[in-house]
Design brief:
The chain is α/β, with parallel strands linked by helices and about 300 residues long. It contains eleven helices and nine strands. It binds phosphoric acid mono(formamide)ester (CP).
Length: about 300
């Protein structure tokens, strides 16, 4: 297929064919990371700037490394130590950076919708690296890519997304992508962490973690986002949350032996997932991180090809 999108803003707007095209492009780039010289000249002469207004380890480094493996020049911008602290707006900042001759802006921002605002106000490509509680499209893509790699397919699988659905942009991007590719999606957690009306996204709601474990092929465990919760926890205590929804080795044994355990990171060890499960044979957490590199190389390469 011909890729026509200058920006990657969300999985809501991507078709199943476009998602598959990202995967096929990532398949080709995956081999680059196995070479002794891990570099191809695909984006030589192009400049990618990471604009991170929120903290990040995986996404920030993965985009920087992806750009460098494609031979692009890279710039990194964060809120701290820049003129954002003097009150400069996102659009003013972006236009000033663009004036230096940047080709792709990778934006993480605390405000839902910020990448769309940026895309409407700059001429270069914009890639969403996570906007508020809305979408995290490259995390969704790398999660789906990892499922496809491990299970050999996505269509027909039953995938549980567990935990803090309400505050999770990862959940939303996963739901859009998984349902478009024909997976059955279950969102699992206390009702206070599941948005009302989420069934309209084509998912089943379940508050019984043990049933989800018995029925599903994949568990995607989400971080409890304490920093996004105002005031009291939306459950009586962390101890009760662990008791009802924490993924322990004993609980995991109720599922099929090939039940795949995912987590986007960062992990609250001992809360949503126990350390032995996070590091155990059914966990693909580090494989997700490794695949993130190929997927982000594919995304940068594809958007850079559209004027
Ligand atoms: N999964 C993820 O977005 O992690 P970071 O916040 O470290 O980028």
């Amino acid at each position: 297929m011909q890729w026509t999108r200058k920006h990657l803003l969300g999985l809501e707007e991507l078709s199943a064919a476009e998602i598959q095209h990202v995967f096929e492009t990532a398949d080709r780039f995956k081999e680059v990371s196995t070479r002794s010289i891990k570099k191809v000249p695909a984006l030589q002469g192009r400049t990618v700037v990471n604009m991170f207004y929120e903290s990040s380890t995986r996404t920030n480094l993965s985009f920087q490394l992806a750009a460098r493996r494609l031979s692009a020049d890279t710039l990194a911008f964060s809120k701290q130590g820049t003129s954002v602290s003097k009150g400069e707006t996102l659009v003013d900042t972006a236009r000033n950076i663009e004036a230096m001759g940047v080709d792709i802006m990778v934006l993480r921002h605390q405000a839902s919708g910020a990448p769309w605002l940026l895309a409407a106000n700059v001429k270069c490509s914009v890639v969403n690296a996570g906007d508020g509680q809305h979408e995290h499209p490259t995390q969704g893509l790398l999660d789906l890519y990892t499922i496809r790699e491990v299970k050999g397919r996505i269509e027909g699988l039953k995938v549980a997304i567990v935990g803090d659905i309400a505050h999770s942009r990862v959940a939303r991007s996963n739901i859009w992508g998984l349902t478009k590719l024909g997976a059955k999606v279950m969102v699992v957690g206390p009702s206070t962490l599941i948005p009302t009306g989420i069934e309209r996204m084509g998912v089943e709601v379940c508050t019984d973690m043990d049933r989800a474990i018995r029925e599903c092929d994949v568990l995607n465990m989400l971080r409890i986002q304490f920093e996004r919760q105002s005031g009291e926890h939306p459950f009586p205590s962390i101890r009760e949350y662990i008791h009802l929804f924490g993924l322990t080795a004993a609980r995991l044994r109720q599922g099929r032996p090939d039940l795949m355990v995912m987590h986007p990171g960062p992990v609250n060890r001992g809360i949503e997932i126990s350390p032995d499960v996070a590091d155990g044979p059914q966990s693909v957490i580090l494989r997700q991180v490794a695949n993130g590199l190929s997927v982000r190389m594919a995304v940068l390469y594809l958007v850079a090809g559209v004027e």
